[in-house]
Write a structure and sequence with these properties.
Blueprint: H1 2-9, H2 12-53
Length: 58
């Protein structure tokens, strides 16, 4: 019975769980940004092209 209570009171695995959750969050955020980035870059490039084409220097 003493071993069971020692196992329940042990918090050695809590740090591992924290790292797993943090790593999963970082991977999820990177995946979302990686998915959205090409669309955003293309839109900014197209808007910049339209803006620059409308400029006259002389």
């Amino acid at each position: 019975m003493k071993k069971i209570w020692f196992f329940i009171a042990s918090d050695d695995g809590a740090v591992t769980v924290d790292w797993v959750v943090l790593t999963a969050a970082v991977v999820t955020i990177i995946s979302i940004v990686n998915t959205m980035m090409p669309t955003a870059v293309t839109a900014v490039a197209a808007n910049t092209k339209i803006f620059l084409e409308g400029l006259t220097f002389f």
